[in-house]
Specification:
With 378 residues, the chain is of the alpha/beta class. The protein has three domains: 40 residues, no CATH class; 153 residues, D-Maltodextrin-Binding Protein, domain 2, CATH 3.40.190.10; 127 residues, D-Maltodextrin-Binding Protein, domain 2. The chain contains 14 helices and 14 strands. Strands 2-1-3-13-4-14 form a six-stranded mixed sheet, sandwiched between helices. Strands 5, 8, 9, 10, 11 and 12 form a six-stranded mixed sheet that branches.
């Protein structure tokens, strides 16, 4: 009770009862004792408050201050005409073709192809012929081209970017694929590993081509598949190193270079689709070229002809309908002529394909360290 009386009887501003002074040292004055008691009381109050707030799990509520955060601009890609069905009159399907010569003639001639496919599918279509390969490629990249005819290197560039799916390859002068062959002057000392009687090689590519180690080739031009890229790929994948090439700009010029000697040691030209040794540019003034310039070794047919592809952005049902119509056109009575005129390219039919059809060529392009995108249009 004495302690309770002490606590209750003493407050800030209240006088201290006289009975408490008798317990204090006499050396302390009354003012000092008052100050001491009040300090003790203040400390007890602080301790009591600390114990009261520290033993609860409830945080002291704090009213947050709202801070305005400006909205962040978000860029959203919206595909072309997403609200309008593809193949409608307001959003026609686009069939494209790359042709650096006579694009206007092919463009006008393509209407018969468009009419046939429209009648078969019910879709609206337009045909666009580009003389600039990069423009066509960018349209394809943006989804503004739905179907497209492509040469092999351009296809490889598009496939690497997942832009197209292969549908058909065309029959060109009776062939779906062609190849390359290595030629040399018969007086050069190279051993011939090609039997002209059976039109077959007599040994493997590695064994036949190793004799070109350290020799100088005649290539046609950098983007030529049969005259530069595939023969170089064949040499490279067999570890055969050669001297810097002489570029002749054409297959017939490569034959002529071998005939006159001193420019290069061997050359590569197209095979299966003809023989440049018998072209008028050669045979007219070099009548014995066929005898003097011999085939050392010939590749298999590995280079696909012009092929037809669908954009990977299209729905499967649209691709299926247009592909069926295009195949039907190619088998119709006038189909080959219609497509020959539309493509400005000898067309004698087509067969279905997938990406595996390009596997052998892709391997050689890689071995030659060639970037397909740098050869758009080929």
């Amino acid at each position: 009770m004495d302690q309770i009386e002490f606590i209750e009887g003493i407050g800030f501003g209240n006088p201290i009862p006289e009975r408490y002074f008798e317990f204090m040292p006499r050396s302390l004055g009354r003012s000092s004792i008052h100050l001491l008691f009040h300090s003790l009381l203040l400390g007890a109050a602080c301790l009591f408050f600390f114990l009261l707030t520290g033993c609860t799990n409830q945080p002291i509520p704090v009213t947050p201050t709202a801070t305005a955060i400006p909205p962040t601009e978000t860029k959203i890609y919206v595909p072309k005409e997403t609200s309008i069905p593809p193949g409608s009159s307001d959003n026609p399907l686009v069939i494209a073709h790359i042709l650096t010569s006579n694009p206007t003639v092919a463009q006008d001639s393509g209407q018969s192809m468009v009419d046939f496919i429209e009648n078969e599918t019910g879709y609206s279509l337009v045909y666009e012929v580009y003389d600039d390969p990069k423009s066509a490629f960018e349209k394809l990249r943006k989804g503004e081209v739905d179907f497209i005819w492509l040469q092999p290197l351009t296809y490889l560039a598009a496939y690497q970017r997942d832009l197209v799916s292969p549908l058909f390859v065309s029959n060109h002068f009776g062939l779906y694929k062609y190849g390359t062959q290595f030629l040399a002057n018969k007086s050069s000392g190279f051993i011939q590993y090609f039997d002209t009687g059976t039109n077959r090689n007599t040994t493997t590519e590695e064994f036949a081509l190793q004799q070109f180690e350290g020799k100088r080739p005649c290539w046609t031009e950098p983007s030529s598949l049969s005259g530069t890229i595939t023969p170089f790929g064949l040499l490279a994948r067999n570890g055969i190193q050669i001297l810097p090439p002489a570029y002749t700009q054409s297959h017939s010029s490569s034959v002529r270079a071998l005939y006159i000697k001193g420019i290069c040691d061997f050359a590569a030209v197209f095979a299966y689709s003809g023989d440049p040794r018998t072209s008028s540019a050669v045979i007219n003034d070099l009548p014995d070229a066929l005898e003097q310039i011999i085939i050392i070794w010939r590749s298999d047919p590995i280079i696909p002809s012009l092929s037809f592809h669908a954009s990977t952005k299209l729905s499967p049902d649209i691709v299926e309908k247009v592909a069926a119509a295009m195949l039907k056109l190619s088998k119709s009575e006038d189909g080959n002529e219609i497509l020959t005129q539309a493509l400005d390219y000898d067309f004698q039919g087509m067969i279905p394909i997938d990406n595996d059809y390009f596997a052998l060529l892709s391997d050689l392009v890689r071995a030659a360290n060639v970037v397909p995108y740098q050869h758009l249009g080929y």
